[in-house]
Amino acid sequence: MPNRPAFGRRVAPDSPPVRVARAAPVAPAAAPQVVEPPAEPSVDEELQAWKEARGSQFKMPWSQLSLMASLCFGIASFVLPDSVNDNVEWLLWALSAIAAYVWWTNRKKKRETKAPDAP
After folding, report:
1. Whole-angstrom Cα distance, residue 98 to residue 62?
2. Alpha helices (H) in 1-119, listed in sequence order
3. Among 29, 38, 37, 1, which residue's Cα sits nearest to residue 17?
4. Is residue 32 part of a domain?
5. Which string of b and e fits 5-40 if b means at least 16 CB within 10 Å?
């Protein structure tokens, strides 16, 4: 084997080459035992277990969404041109009223659950 310089290291030219010690060969066993690996769960089972362990903490902010919807529908009834507004005016007001009602009922439910029990 020719003397080649080591990659990435500076080697002194008069140093002897480094020899790697080889491991002694291992004698084969008389009767090899077949060990079966434990059965791995399928990808679907593993994903389901991960989702259960993680536990989603996300809760849809319905009260904020309904408030914004009622405001947007109300503003749209004023902003749209008259040619469009004549056709959808009642629809926009109805949607605005429904969204405002949903927001108001959700707000009342939250107050009832957060209110402390005072004697």
Report:
1. 13
2. 43-54, 62-79, 82-114
3. 1
4. no
5. eeeeeeeeeeeeeeeeeeeeeeeeeeeeeeeeeeee
Residues 78, 35: Cα–Cα separation, whole Å: 76
Q: Is the dihedral of CA 67, 73, 76, 82 positive or negative?
A: negative
Are residues 77 and 85 in contact, defined by beta-carbon separation less than 8 angstroms? yes
The parent domain of residue 69 ranges over 60-112
Number of domain units in the chain: 1
* pLDDT tops 70 at residue 70: yes
Query: Does residue 94 form part of some domain?
Result: yes
In a domain, 69, yes or no: yes
Tell me the two tokens of residue 81.
Answer: 């041109």
Query: Does residue 21 lie within any of the structural domains?
Result: no
Q: How distant, in Å, are the alpha carbons of 1, 8, 33, 40, 96 from that of 37?
A: 42, 41, 12, 8, 62
Pair of tokens at residue 73: 């529908």
The pLDDT tens digits for 16-69 are 666 666 766 666 666 667 666 667 778 888 888 888 888 777 777 888 888 898
